[in-house]
Amino acid sequence: MSASKTVSKGSVNSTTIVTDDVDESSKPEFIYGGPFIKVEKPSPIIDTATPFNLELQGTFKKSFAYYSLKERLPVILTKIIDYLSREGAKIKSTHGASDEDIRSYIQYVTKLKNDLVTNKQYDLLTVDTPEARRWNQWIEALDIKHYFTNVWVFTECYVYRRLREGCELSKTLKNFDPFADQKQKSFEGSLELMCIVADKLVNMLSKSDKDKCKSDFVTLLKLCLWANKCDLSLSSGEQVFLNGNNADGKATASNIIDPFQMILDFKDKLLVDDTSKIVDQVTSKAEAMMKNLEAPASAVDGAISSPPETPAAEATDVPCPTKMTSPQHVMFDIVCDNAGYELFADLCLAHFLISQGIVQKIRFHVKNIPWFVSDVTPVDFKWVIDSCLKASYRREVPQQPTEAAEGEVPPEPEPPRVISADNLRALAEQWTKYVDEGTFVVLHDDFWTSPHVYRDMKRHAPSLYRQLQYAVALLFKGDLNYRKLLCEKNVPPTSGLEAALQGFLPAPVIAVRTVKADLICGLPKGKWDQLNALDDKWMQKGDFGVIQYCGKVEPLKVADRPCDQYGDVCRGAGCGPRTDM
Ligand SMILES: O=P(O)(O)OC[C@@]1(O)O[C@H](CO)[C@@H](O)[C@@H]1O
């Protein structure tokens, strides 16, 4: 490891990036009463991969966390700086910002990047909001407050939270999303894929027999999985093409990329496939819940579907969640990941579940603030549906001519295949209705943009935990959710999901994720070694995927803590009419 820091030019638009090792061992230190002298301190960086059963962190030099903090995240920050410099005029006119506002944000991001690459201690947030104060308490409670030395997920979340703070501190940039353009471009680049999927989805929506329904449900789960390849944080903002190789990934004049065909082509890359179990369990649990809702409360074994002693409750009031032990609706929850094509795929699954009558509501959990470049925010949720609604697309693809047998007249050429946005627009129209009538509910709890792993949700966000307990199942999309489900711990790859969740059991968990970080569970014995032998970077590329299920659930009892809104005076109802329970 070099004794002194070297600074070299980074690859992105000539912005300077510190590219040597994070090395704290040779910093001069002041000894009281003496001159500045060199004090050798042990380097925090260890030349190894993350050992099993430890949390991922940037100090393991052979881990993706190290590479990510050293190379990827600084590039993401540099791109924001470049974007602000390049598109300053546009940003100023959209947000009514001044040159000074843009300059201040650039300075803010530049300092953040320098602090990251030199492994400084986290700064406290300076905005004064209850949520920022909570962040500061979490930071203050840490034993280790350095970017590389603390747990990777904390550092990454902290960096995205700080990016937000830069906007919060500005008078004019409060609604600025530094990733909005990238998300938009990625959506536009996937338009043809969405048209192709929409054309097939319309044939899955009319009420079908049990077998077809099951096979379509399985297919849509797999569609959702491979849509998770389209993640702009892994690619540092570059557009991702679905069939792997970015250069070859574009559809050409005569070639169509069909996401349904990809499901078949990628069969061997799906390392854990619990889809059949998921479909059986979700459908039977949903059926049981539906019966429960239809039956009068007294007829249902032990279930209190409305709270006891609620004389003043309005018929339209939803009982207080602290007392309610069964939900008001049969609901399926999607903890979303990326906007654009991935959200589109989630909406397709949601639409299918509603139209087949499997559940009555879908709750989409999204991020409150711009997050990991391409994660869905409430604004993104709306523009994705609106953009589908307005989509205009048409391409005629010539069909391969059929060969004529020797001596026979060649058959008439097939007419070209027409790919258009007609069905896409029709679907989006229905999604708009679903949103308006509350069949699709968009929720954005602050917990999703906290640095906490899901084991700790009950402690940090008890109301959210309780809210999740009413779901038939929780579909966690993507790699970041997976890391938080596994408590950011490099568990032995053959350990089961239930053990890895460490007690996070609000409702059945479905984890759907392409592998983009070096942790995994549920693999068959020997598989991990076999994949490592073929490519030691296989866990960093998003080429492989898992669809995993844990059906173990903690029973939902009357809460032992008072109602969030009314405390001890809560009479069981009166928390206001809610659509999300
Ligand atoms: O959650 P997603 O979108 O599937 O992936 C998020 C991701 O790009 O971000 C992390 C690093 O920034 C990685 O774990 C992962 O590759």
How would you describe this structure to a colleague?
It is a single chain. With 581 residues, this protein is α/β, with parallel strands linked by helices. It has two domains: 171 residues, Transcription Elongation Factor S-II, Chain A (Up-down Bundle), CATH 1.20.930; 327 residues, no CATH class. A hairpin with a 5-residue loop joins strand 3 and strand 4. Helix 3 packs antiparallel against helix 5, helix 7 runs parallel beside helix 11 and helix 7 crosses helix 13. It is globular, with a radius of gyration of 26 Å. The site of 1-O-phosphono-beta-D-fructofuranose has 15 residues, from helix 16. The site of 1-O-phosphono-beta-D-fructofuranose (F1X) has 15 residues, from helix 16.
Structural class: alpha/beta
- Helix count equals 18
Bound molecules: 1-O-phosphono-beta-D-fructofuranose
Shape: globular
Question: Biggest sheet, strands in spatial order?
Answer: 5-13-12-11-6-7-10
Q: What is the domain total for the residues?
A: 2
Pfam families: ARMT1-like_dom
GO molecular function: metal ion binding; phosphatase activity; protein carboxyl O-methyltransferase activity
Catalytic activity: beta-D-fructose 6-phosphate = dihydroxyacetone + D-glyceraldehyde 3-phosphate; beta-D-fructose 1-phosphate + H2O = D-fructose + phosphate; L-glutamyl-[protein] + S-adenosyl-L-methionine = [protein]-L-glutamate 5-O-methyl ester + S-adenosyl-L-homocysteine
Protein name: Sugar phosphate phosphatase
